[in-house]
């Protein structure tokens, strides 16, 4: 697995608090075969979670030195949606994933963000590729699933928290996760790990097997590994719209 969502830069957000905690998380990842991780601390405008890239790089370098030759770490952020994202990137406050144009964006859990789709497509016009973090947790996608399907059709990517399979966020979230998965709207799987006591990496292989059993092995390989590799190489992750649309139509016909 390549993990594109992990809160392991200590002392920055609600994730890892100490160097020791970060080391424990990375040791767990290494033991379970995870070799590449994007570190994605929260960036929430006008909150205490506004650590600039300069500080993040210092901590990342410290951790990378400890795990040199074992795990490769890449810069990133989980960016809570706001209308100043491109400016914050230009000012070196927040970071896309690695050296790419892929942005990991978090939405409000309950209230739909005003003009969400218009704003996301304005970001895309600037060359950014949008990944929505853990859509299974957002109430308005559950209330209107067609909104998620339409965004998927139009090229918005979605990252699922594989721990949703284990009811980590409740049964309703698990059911939504499975629904999104069966529509094949996930482009990535990730841990969203925050603390060393969370044993999320122990579930990686089992989660991948479960996903493959509900879809197929080729799709599971893409969302756990190969799509994330394309972030690192700067490649586009293409969606076959014709194939997806026919798949959506078949699913809708059975609902």
Annotate the secondary structure layout.
Blueprint: E1 2-6, H1 19-31, E2 36-39, E3 42-43, H2 53-66, E4 72-74, E5 78-80, H3 85-90, E6 102-106, H4 116-125, E7 129-133, H5 139-143, H6 145-153, E8 157-161, H7 171-182, E9 188-190, H8 204-214, H9 217-233, H10 241-253
Parallel strand pairs: 1-2, 2-4, 3-5, 5-6, 6-7, 7-8, 8-9
Please characterize this protein's 3D structure.
The protein has 255 residues and is of the alpha/beta class. The protein has a single domain (2-253), classed as TIM Barrel (Alpha-Beta Barrel). Helix content is 43%, strand content 14%. The protein has helices at 19-31, 53-66, 85-90, 116-125, 139-143, 145-153, 171-182, 204-214, 217-233, 241-253, and strands at residues 2-6, 36-39, 42-43, 72-74, 78-80, 102-106, 129-133, 157-161, 188-190. Strands 3-5-6-7-8-9 form a six-stranded parallel sheet. Helix 3 links the parallel strand 5 and strand 6. Helix 8 (204-214) packs across helix 9.
List keywords for this structure.
255 residues, alpha/beta, TIM Barrel, three-stranded parallel beta sheet
CATH architecture: Alpha-Beta Barrel
Number of helices: 10
How are the strands of the largest sheet arranged? Answer: 3-5-6-7-8-9
Number of structural domains: 1
- What is the beta-strand fraction? 5-15%
């Amino acid at each position: 697995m390549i993990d594109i969502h992990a809160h392991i830069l200590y002392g920055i957000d609600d994730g890892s608090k100490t160097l020791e905690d970060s080391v424990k998380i990375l040791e767990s990842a290494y033991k379970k075969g995870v070799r590449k991780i994007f570190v994605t601390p929260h960036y929430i405008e006008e909150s205490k979670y506004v650590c600039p890239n300069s500080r993040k790089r210092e901590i990342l370098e410290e951790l990378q030195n400890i795990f040199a030759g074992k795990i490769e770490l890449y810069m990133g952020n989980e960016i809570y949606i706001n209308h100043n994202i491109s400016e914050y990137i230009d000012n070196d406050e927040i970071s896309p994933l690695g050296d790419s144009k892929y942005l990991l964006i978090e939405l409000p859990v309950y209230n739909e963000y005003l003009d969400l789709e218009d704003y996301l497509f304005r970001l895309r016009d600037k060359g950014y590729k949008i990944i929505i973090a853990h859509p299974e947790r957002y109430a308005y996608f559950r209330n209107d699933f067609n909104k998620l399907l339409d965004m998927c059709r139009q090229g918005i990517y979605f990252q699922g928290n594989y721990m949703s399979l284990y009811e980590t966020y409740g049964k309703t979230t698990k059911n939504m996760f499975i629904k999104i998965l069966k529509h094949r709207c996930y482009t990535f799987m990730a841990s969203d790990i925050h603390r060393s006591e969370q044993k999320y990496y122990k579930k990686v292989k089992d989660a991948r097997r479960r996903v493959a059993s509900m879809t197929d092995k080729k799709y599971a390989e893409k969302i756990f590994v190969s799509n994330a590799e394309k972030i690192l190489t700067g490649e586009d992750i293409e969606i076959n719209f014709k194939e997806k649309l026919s798949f959506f139509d078949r699913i809708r016909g059975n609902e």
